[in-house]
Design goal:
Length: about 190
Amino acid sequence: MKNYFAHSHAIVESEKIGGGTRVWAFTHILPGAVIGGNCNINDHTFIENDVVIGNNVTVKSGVYIWDGARISDNVFIGPNVTFTNDLRPRSKQYPNEFLKTVLQEYSSIGANATIIAGNTIGKYAMIGAGSVVTTDIPNNTLWYGNPAKFRGYICNCGERLDQKLQCPTCTKQYVLEGAIITEINS
């Protein structure tokens, strides 16, 4: 017995979907996909076989998630985000294995962003709408543009940090050690 909701116009071939997940109209999920609990998979979404999606993930409308994608818990994927999985695509020529693209916990991807295959987007990182991600993105950083460039640091709550690496909203304080930013425990 399934413990998730699937709209009558969705095609759900996978049996590996967690409880409380909602799959909306005109979504197609292939049989090998693994989707966690309490996810919201919006209309007009395609999820290929070699895809793993964690818990509490939001996938907005018009997103196609190709083989090799690994999406951790609590990730937000905005409308019409584009993933790639092959840096040299040719019709009817397939690599032995598709590149892995990893979205770590609590990362957020803005509408119409393109994520080039083989990159990792760090925890709590934020990608601005329309950006093209061509490199790994460190934790708690804000990137946007084409190609996406580093624009600042982001608090776990989603606000941009000030010059002292403090959040103006929740007042969390961070420290930069080399190229790694971490929250200071209070």
